[in-house]
Amino acid sequence: MERTVTYFETLGPENTDVTFRLARERAHELGIRKIVIASTTGATARKAMDYFRDDGVQLVIIPHQWDFHREVNPFPPDLAATLREAGHVVHFGTMLFHTGELFGSPVPQLMADLLRCFCQGFKVCFEIVLMATDAGHVKSGEQVIAIAGTGRGSDTALVLQAASSQHLKKLRVNEILAKPLNPLNIEEVHARMAQEAAR
Hints:
Elements: E1 6-8, H1 16-30, E2 34-38, H2 43-51, E3 58-62, H3 77-85, E4 89-90, H4 100-103, H5 107-116, H6 120-134, E5 143-148, E6 156-161, E7 172-180, H7 186-198
Parallel strand pairs: 1-7, 2-3, 2-5, 3-4
Antiparallel strand pairs: 5-6, 6-7
Helix pairs in contact: 5-6
């Protein structure tokens, strides 16, 4: 069996359309009906709602949890309402790889750092599928596509067999559809985002 992986040589929201196209094609081929997507400010969620409008898939949108770096969540409440009215899910759950200080264990951070060796989006794809399964929006064992990115936009897409955080060993990466060719570490991601915000 042979499959093609798309590698992005540059980072940024310009990769989103290609990532969405790859997800759409594979979802159609595999009969996948749920796409789990990370979206911090709602820009990616809004684009996904339009892009996948006629594809017969349910979007499970995972923004940042409340009180994460900001007093006000950057995901627009009106967009969350619009997505839910369209039959999609918006889930503000606990971000599983950001709980080290709360529980006094370095394990979540170690897991995040290891997954970021593949790319930032790889780590987020694992996290959002675990979160979606924990919340009951995805069934354990269900095959889904997860989409995430580096800072802004989407550049990573995986076909995953979902699992909850209670049964982490059951999570499976079935296919890698797209990822950055030369991923950044988290410090580089933060530095890049700070530079973009200063422009």
